[in-house]
Amino acid sequence: MTTTAVHNLDPARVKPFAGQPRKRFRGIAKLAESIRLVGQVTPIIVTDSADPGFDAELIDGERRLRACLEGGMKIKAVFEDVDGEDRYLRSVAANFCRQGHDPIEIMDAVATLERAGRTRAEIAGIFGTTVSWVCQYSRLTALAPELIEELKRPDEKDRQSKGERRAGGKLSLSVALLLVPFPHDVQRKMLGRIRKGNFSMAESRTFVKRFAIGAKIQVGKKQSDISKFRTVAMAVDNCRHVVDRYVNMPGAKIQPLVASATCGERKILAASLESLCESLLMLGDALAP
Questions:
Q1: 81: helix, strand or coil
Q2: pTM, whole model, 2 decimals?
């Protein structure tokens, strides 16, 4: 049945959607407390369940469902008629227009749609994004299993049992994409080096690119000259906006900011500014008619 009526259901009798694209859930305890204090603002979307053990099957709203289960509260729900592949498409569209998914959840969702025969243009439309974005996450399927695990964002239970991962030595999406062209054994060795060296993201990218040059393997996307020019132009404009925001503050408040820094921090910034000014002057000379 399809109806706009809101039903109060027992969350234990709402069957989670087996094809749920989101695999790891975060912030459930906080969401449960929020619902307890102010109520459930948005109903979940469900459909009739063929399983006699449940009153409904979930389409959208598993975080709210889990929160109500944890808090022992009834859950508000709206019924819609959705079957087969449409159920998965609705779940993808509902979930991935929001933030919070890790790269592997996105990779799995893209791969599922590709196996269902969807073109990358169609998948981009479902996600509300570009074809290049879809291609990027599709490429992650070429990673070794160990690297795929590294890209998963730990849920609350993992964080409590294992602790937060350190910032250095952690594989980022941009570095993982650079590793895609390498064989799995090489990917594993390079991941080991990144972990052992506790590399930052920038250090990891430099390490992979240098290795690729030695191995004569093309990594990353080769930018055209006009693309590089536009990237530089955007970076300069962003830099100008950020600096102007503080330098031109009313009441000459820039001095307290500078005074709050240590002598060493001020020297580092001064050296960076000198280098930046030199680079900008060179760029300006090149732009002169």
A1: coil
A2: 0.51
